[in-house]
Design brief:
Length: 208
Amino acid sequence: MFRFCFSTLVLFPLLFESAFSISFFLPVNSLKCLREEIHKDVLVTGEYEVSEQPNTKTNLKIIDSSGHILYSKEDASKGKFAFTTEDYDMFEVCFESKSPMGTGRVPDQLVKLDMKHGVEAKNYEEIAKVEKLKPLEVELRRMEDFSESIVNDFAYMKKREEEMRDTNESTNARVLYFSVFSMCCLIGLATWQVFYLRRFFKAKKLIE
């Protein structure tokens, strides 16, 4: 029973790693970007491959929401990239195809992208060589890092929940104050109308 549970825990991170692979077709003279939100201080690695087409140049660029370039490669055909995030942000991986032949004359290029971040991006084989770890110790280290990432994700979600709750409470308070102010304005306007109509009818001698 312990062996089955341990195997399940070991295989789960491995299955989780394969979820970041994607492939798509890139038409000539077009731009396609993939977006992903990543936490602060997270290692991001990736491997890409672009099918070759004559007279076609494909550029790769990775930028954050502020427009800062984290990785750039002109005439990208195959390679790897890696960077560490400095803050929680939305990142874009953009592939741009350029060709003087014009659209419709050149077939679409096939782009394959495999991105990993956090625990998935760590090279545990290299860690095992450096620290001289046994296979069981490597898997335990992997599970420990994976558990820590889950805890960090829950902590971040809790922080966001607190921020959203504070925002909701602040919004409710502002709505309440606005409602009270509106009621006071309506009551004041109604009172003024009563006195105005009373003076008007007295002036017309319709009432005493």
